[in-house]
């Protein structure tokens, strides 16, 4: 067994082999999503609870679809429909749900570290579906699967991540994963949003001038400005940000013809990404979403198989 952990909390703690094992498994499970009957009995009798205390379209839906395609029973709680609105703490909510004997919790929370705290408490497996600005491991796994499908290898590949790195759990998980797999990662954006200290990670470089580095990139990962996490003003104006760091077809004239354009979603169209780039021929944004289901099937599978008969 290559993945023997109880939980999936972050890419930082995973080995290269564990990451590759999940990507290989996701590749082999993808075919189920193309069948006319998209269901296999692998996780029959397993119970998955989604606890999303922050909004989500892609992650929540694809975890739910993934679990159902593996025949698990799924249940969902969001903050507005739980007893949290009556004053119950998150830990008390989890203790009560734990008493109903679930197998897996999928947790998204605005506070970094909440899934880790719950994982220490519960016997069930915990999957981090995004915690504050810390990590979003399954997003990075689906990004890495998409890159691997297009580029074949990570060795020497140049991945440029542009935008609000400071607040981005997607960036953090991708930085850990891509650097472990052998890619060179450059982080670019305004100095207020791109911490220079991240250069202490192997294979990671920080630059502030987009046009200096764009021509060298094989993959361009564009991030959303996380204004909901910005407690102070990090930018003189959105217009200035867009002029300097927004990705347009004009700027892409200097890029490699086979540059892959990615975005985890949701997109602020016209701010970090021009609509004709988001919908253009080099964009793989919807392929990322498709791969999200297979990656989440793989993650649910490796955790559930720990106690399959
Ligand atoms: N990429 C991502 O996490 O999207 P959602 O917030 O819609 O889940």
From TrEMBL:
Pfam families: OTCace, OTCace_N. The keyword Transferase applies. It comes from the Bacteria. InterPro entries: Asp/Orn_carbamoyltranf_P-bd, Asp/Orn_carbamoylTrfase, Asp/Orn_carbamoylTrfase_sf, Asp_carbamoyltransf, Asp_carbamoyltransf_Asp/Orn-bd. The keyword Chaperone does not apply. Residues 155-302 form the Aspartate/ornithine carbamoyltransferase Asp/Orn-binding domain. L-aspartate binds at residues 86, 169, 224. NCBIfam families: asp_carb_tr (TIGR00670), PRK00856.1 (NF002032). Belongs to the aspartate/ornithine carbamoyltransferase superfamily. ATCase family. This is Aspartate carbamoyltransferase. It comes from Thermodesulforhabdus norvegica.
């Amino acid at each position: 067994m290559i993945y023997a952990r109880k939980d999936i909390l972050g890419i930082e703690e995973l080995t290269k082999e564990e990451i590759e094992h999940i990507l290989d498994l996701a590749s082999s499970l993808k075919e189920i999503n193309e069948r006319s009957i998209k269901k296999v009995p692998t996780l029959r009798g397993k119970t998955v609870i989604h606890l999303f205390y922050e909004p989500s379209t892609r992650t929540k839906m694809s975890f739910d679809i993934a679990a159902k395609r593996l025949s698990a029973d799924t249940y969902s709680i969001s903050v507005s429909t739980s007893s949290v609105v009556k004053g119950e703490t998150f830990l008390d909510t989890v203790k009560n749900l734990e008493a109903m004997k679930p197998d897996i919790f999928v947790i998204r929370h605005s506070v970094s570290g909440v899934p880790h705290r719950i994982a220490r408490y519960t016997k069930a497996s915990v999957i981090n579906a995004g915690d504050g600005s810390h990590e979003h491991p399954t997003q990075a796994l689906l990004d890495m699967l998409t890159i691997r499908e297009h580029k074949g290898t990570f060795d020497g590949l140049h991945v440029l991540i542009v935008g609000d790195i400071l607040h981005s759990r997607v960036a953090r998980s991708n930085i850990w994963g891509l650097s472990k797999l052998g890619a060179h990662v450059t982080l670019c954006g305004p100095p207020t949003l791109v911490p220079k200290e991240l250069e202490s990670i192997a294979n990671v470089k920080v630059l502030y001038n987009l046009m200096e580095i764009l021509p060298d990139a094989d993959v361009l990962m564009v991030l959303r400005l996380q204004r909901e996490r910005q407690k102070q003003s990090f930018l003189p104006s959105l217009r200035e940000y867009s002029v300097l760091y927004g990705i347009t077809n004009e700027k892409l004239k200097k890029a490699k013809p086979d540059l892959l354009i990615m975005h985890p979603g949701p997109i602020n169209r016209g701010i970090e990404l021009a609509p004709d780039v988001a919908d253009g021929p080099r964009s793989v944004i919807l392929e990322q979403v498709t791969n999200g289901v297979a990656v989440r099937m793989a993650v649910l599978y490796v955790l559930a198989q720990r106690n399959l008969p």
